[in-house]
Structures are given as C-alpha cells and as structure tokens.
Amino acid sequence: RDWSVTGVQTCALPILARQVGEAQLTEIRRQKDPWAKQAIHDFADGRAGEALNAFEQRGLLFIEEEKSELQEKLITDWASGNGAVNPKEHLILAQKNDEVKELNRLAQAKRKELGELKEKHAIVGKDRFYEGDRIMFRRNDRDLKVKNGQMGNILRVDNLRKQLTVGFDNDQRVSFSHEEDRKSTRLNSSH
Length: 191
Prior knowledge:
alpha+beta
C-alpha cells in the first residue's frame, strides 16, 4: 500500500507541551569545531548565507554552473576519499531518483576504471551489474529473507544459470535468478 495512517496530528504538540511541559535542545554535540556549531546556529536563526559562507571558506561547499560538473566533482572526491575502494563506508545521498541513477552510473564507472569491479556482469533490465558491485534491495523478499534497503556486494555472476550471489554486511549470502528480477525491479546500484 502507498499510504499510512498517522496517529499524531501537528496541532497536538502545543497541547501536549502545555500539559506536560517542554524542553529545548540548545547544546550542539555532533559538530565539534566552534565554527561548525556557529554555522548550525546560523541556519537555525535564518542566517543561511552566513552559514554557507563558513562552509565555503573551508572548502566544504562547492557551486558549479552545471549539475553534471558537480556530479563529476562529487564522484572524484568520493573516489579520492577511498569511496571507490570501500563504498560500504562512503555513502552518496541524492534526493531525486534520476540523480541517484546518474550518480550510481558514474560511481560504477569510476570503480570499473580503478579495477574494483570484475569483468563478469549481468544485465538486469536496463542496468548492468558487475561482480564486486554494491547493490541495494528495493523491496522485501521473504523467500530470500532480505529487507527493503538491505545492501550487499555481488560476489558472483553466473550467466549460465542466470543467477547472482550477493553477500550482505551481516555475512548472510543469497543467490537468486537475475532473469526473474528483470520483471520485479528488486535491485538498485548502491555505490
């Protein structure tokens, strides 16, 4: 189903605060550097320009004319930071599905260029998956005992049997028909 019921209404929070009291979180713990803490306060107080300037001055904000230039820079930085060698520890997040698809394509190409992916591959729908690729399951599968969002690496491509073997981060392994997956769109690259 594509909907869910919510038990909390937005108007309930002020009523609850009046009845039981409220607290405010004021101490920033995640950011350690004083400038970063100040930037968070700037964002919270509506001074986004000042906060963004603080990040830009430290080389942590990049602005490009074209989206493709920014994506290329992101992948280059990801690879130079060991993301291509160890994608499990270096996530790339994007908001839109088309951006996710393009960034995955670029990350896969970079990993292939660096020799992190083997030649053996399977074509699933319009996507090509290599031995060594990091993938994410996009739906629960009781038969395979995998959950939506679960990630792992393709350990083996068997095109004779039309099977992929995936090893997950919890040492679980599953093999399944990639021929069947063409219809169900179970997989997504996850670099």
